[in-house]
Structure to design on (170 residues):
């Protein structure tokens, strides 16, 4: 499967939690979730631009992205509760990024979603390595990566880099 090929939906080990490709049809729900989660998303300063985006900005971005990222909304019983992206840095190297709405934290959804997307990267995209960056102070995201087996590789001024090596059959 080529990087540009996308699965519309990916299941997780929790049957009520699905990853569904983010499209223009999701713009209003996405905008609302960003607004409802403003305080915790901007706590470390890394989502200021996104939470301040207008609905039209979000529609435009989802209609015509400037990158080749695979963008998924986390849907719990159909309701949008977060976002997870898989970015083709230099395939077979990918990076992953995720966030949850304020009310969805603490239930393991980020771990389940990342686990499913990483398996997709390994099995369908032949990924060998997945990288992530976590802003200093964002302990929750670091714990998700720890649970998934990522290792801390380097500290920078504002974030820590994590790495997960993949092999088929893991």
């Amino acid at each position: 499967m080529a990087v540009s090929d996308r699965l519309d939906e990916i299941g997780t080990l929790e049957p009520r939690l699905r990853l569904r490709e983010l499209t223009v049809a999701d713009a209003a729900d996405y905008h609302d979730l960003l607004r409802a989660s403003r305080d915790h998303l901007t706590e470390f300063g890394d989502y200021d631009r996104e939470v301040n985006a207008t609905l039209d900005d979000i529609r435009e971005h989802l209609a015509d992205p400037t990158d080749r990222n695979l963008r998924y909304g986390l849907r719990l019983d159909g309701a949008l509760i977060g976002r997870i992206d898989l970015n083709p840095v230099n395939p077979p190297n990918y990076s992953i990024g995720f966030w949850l709405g304020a009310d969805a934290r603490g239930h393991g959804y980020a771990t389940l979603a990342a686990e499913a997307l990483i398996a997709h990267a390994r099995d369908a995209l032949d990924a060998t390595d997945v990288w992530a960056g976590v802003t200093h102070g964002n302990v929750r995201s670091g714990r998700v990566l720890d649970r998934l087996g990522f290792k801390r590789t380097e500290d920078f001024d504002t974030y820590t880099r994590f790495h997960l090596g993949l092999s088929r059959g893991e």
Summary: The mean pLDDT is 92. Residues 109-125 form the longest helix (17 residues). The CA atoms of residues 54 and 71 lie 19 Å apart. The first strand starts at residue 9 and ends at 11.
